[in-house]
Specification:
13 helices; single chain; mainly alpha; elongated
């Protein structure tokens, strides 16, 4: 079996010209399978069937590997068998129809409402950069914008008097979003110090040279603002997540939150219901007399 494995890795190196790092990942994943098969005295790739591979995946899952890591290992096994079939060293591919167990979906990180207020209620600001950054954060949190949407926002798509912003999201889809009172106030403060706007195609957020801020520059400014005002790293998507979670918690209207976020599939928005349930469960555990654990537990 090791002979075929080395031949396969040689094929990846010479014909597919994979990087040394990728080759090492293939070797590591397939060496793990070889050890599993050797423990069961299996010495022929033809002797491996779907049931045996399923047992292997189950053992790896019990050892703590995530669904994503198991998917990568199965992909390596499928590639190996495709090569063996092509070289007529094997008669079947037992990994074709196998799927790894799904990993639990990670819940997005959010700020609680009090921390969001602490972040944004900064009082009077005089520094040019701080006024701009405050306006960016207010707009992120007020309207739930994606980083790319805020970075590409032009003056002509923002109507402060009407309290609306028109953004172009994923799939080039346009949606109109409300802009809250505090965000409008922060934007007005920013426009008082912003370089002169020549026309409506000018970007809303610019650097000191008057050029549009890149997404990376916005990320760095948001991160710095978080450290300075609440003592933790912050990223734009955390503000979007907080917008969605707090809105859903107050309104309970999942469809409205879906529309505001620009999600095509409501299942993407449903992650925020899990966040709210988690919060409710914590309140229940701490407050309900029949839920509290005894001190000796």
């Amino acid at each position: 079996m090791l002979t075929e494995l080395e031949a396969f890795l040689g094929h990846l190196r010479s014909e597919r010209q994979l990087s040394p790092r990728t080759l090492e990942a293939y070797r590591r994943d397939l060496d793990s399978l070889c050890r599993f098969l050797a423990e069961r005295q299996v010495s022929d790739w033809n002797a491996v069937d779907s049931a045996l591979l399923r047992l292997y995946i189950a053992s790896r899952h019990q050892a703590g590997l995530s669904g994503r890591s198991l998917q990568r290992e199965l992909s390596a096994v499928r590639s190996l068998y495709r090569y063996l079939l092509r070289e007529r060293r094997c008669r079947h591919n037992p990994a074709l129809d196998l799927r790894p167990p799904k990993s639990p979906r990670k819940l997005p990180r959010t700020l609680d409402a009090d921390l969001a207020a602490q972040l944004l209620d900064t009082g009077e600001e005089e520094d040019w950069l701080t006024i701009r950054d405050h306006a960016m954060l207010e707009l992120f949190y007020s309207s739930g914008l994606r980083l790319s949407e805020l970075a590409s926002l032009d003056m002509g798509r923002l109507d402060i008097d009407a309290g609306e912003v028109r953004v172009i999201g994923k799939g080039n889809k346009t949606r109109v979003l409300p802009v809250g009172r505090m965000a409008r106030q922060a934007l007005r403060s920013w426009f008082k110090v912003r370089p002169v706007v020549a026309d409506t195609s000018q970007p809303v957020f610019v650097g000191m040279q008057g050029r549009r801020l890149t997404p990376r520059a916005i990320q760095l400014r948001v991160r710095r603002y978080g450290v300075e005002h609440i003592g933790q790293h912050l990223h734009p998507h955390m503000l979007r997540h907080s917008f969605a979670s707090h809105l859903l918690e107050s309104s309970g209207d999942l469809r409205a939150v879906q529309e505001l976020l620009g999600h095509t599939d409501i299942s993407t928005t449903q992650v925020y219901t899990h966040l709210n349930f988690q919060h409710l469960a914590e309140v229940y555990d701490s407050a309900h007399p029949r839920a509290r654990r005894k001190s000796e537990d």
